Amino acid sequence: MMKLLREMKNKDIDRVVAIIDSHDDDDAEEAAAGYRQMGGTYDNFVYEKQGEIIGVTGFSSPLSCDETYWLSWTYIEDQHTHQGHGTKMIKEIIEIIKARGARKLFIKVSDYVDPEDGAIYATALKLYQTLGFKIEITHNHFYDDEEAQLILAMRLQDPKEQNVTDEHLNIQFDGIFEIAETEAAYSFSWHDQGEAPVNLNDVQIGIDAVRNKGARAIFLSFPSNFIQAEAPVLHAGFSKAGQLDDYYEDGIHEVHYSLYF
Ligand SMILES: CC(C)(COP(=O)(O)OP(=O)(O)OC[C@H]1O[C@@H](n2cnc3c(N)ncnc32)[C@H](O)[C@@H]1OP(=O)(O)O)[C@@H](O)C(=O)NCCC(=O)NCCS
Could you give all domains of the chain from N- to C-terminal order, each with its CATH number? Predict the structure, then answer.
């Protein structure tokens, strides 16, 4: 297969931001801020057609997970879409990610319907599903009242048989934060070395604090083997939203909880 992707360099930032801007100016602003931070183009790739950059894609891999990858900003310039470039670009980035030893690849997509341009991410969703990604979680009202987040995933290696042991953690909630790219959706930060698995009182303090900030919703997630987390979280009024299978490693999922005001 001819290579169409090359690593993105700092000198490509303006061109790449223009490509993203051809679809959505808010995304372009967010991406520009990310790229301009030191090392911001790291693990990003540009797609070239006859020497001109017309697409961008990339990936990241959370340190807390075993060979788990996320696809990041993925765009083909608007005037070049529907000619097969997106499919080629995404297939090639998947090969690059596979070559890094990835076990599983995740991608987040919004179902936003723009008043003028319609369902601007619908092509992406269909393309990912055609390539074999499956929806694992749908968080309704995630980015905004009318905008859900869909998390899709695809395995890049067969699952390994694992003996998973329960994790007995004592965690301490230590803050609330608005989730990036959302309108008033919050989450809680926490660290371990707390005094109880999950202190129900603290969950309540967090809920009250975000309500005072005008939150629409709270989203929390915990590893599936941290089994003591679930009871207090459900007791506080959260519902189970689903799980990302084998997220941390084969056999350890990421369980998601949501609470809407
Ligand atoms: C998602 C995205 C990258 C896809 O890029 P693309 O170059 O249009 O992708 P493709 O051309 O391979 O496929 C798109 C469609 O065009 C069709 N197509 C491909 N080649 C074609 C051709 N020669 N003639 C007509 N249609 C064609 C495909 O079958 C596909 O159709 P479908 O949506 O009915 O399944 C692009 O639409 C985009 O940048 N979208 C906005 C940003 C976004 O949603 N990013 C992903 C979320 S982060």
Answer: 5-155 (3.40.630.30), 171-260 (3.40.630.30)
Strand partners, 91: none
Cα 185 to the chain's mean position, in Å?
15
Among 33, 63, 27, 60, CA closest to 45:
60
pTM (2 d.p.): 0.94
State the average pLDDT over residues 220-231.
Answer: 93
Q: Would the CB of 54 count as within 6 Å of ligand 1?
A: no
For residue 121, the surrounding DSSP H or E stretch is none
Ligand 1 pocket test, candidate residues 47, 93, 123, 150, most atoms within 8 A of CB: 123
Contact 230, 244 (CB under 8 A): no
Structure tokens at 152: 């899709």
- Report the nearest atom of ligand 1 relative to the CA of 77: 39
Report, as an integer, the average pLDDT of 244-254.
Answer: 97
Closest CA to 247 of 102, 42, 93, 94: 102
* Amino acid sitting at position 88: K
Residue 75 clears pLDDT 70, i.e. is over it: yes
Residue 102's SS3 state is coil
The DSSP call for residue 158 is P
How confident is the model at residue 42, as a pLDDT?
Answer: 87
Q: Is 10 in the pocket of ligand 1 (CB under 6 A)?
A: no
What is the predicted pLDDT for the residue at 208? 96
Q: How far is the CA of 89 from the centre of ligand 1 (A)?
A: 10
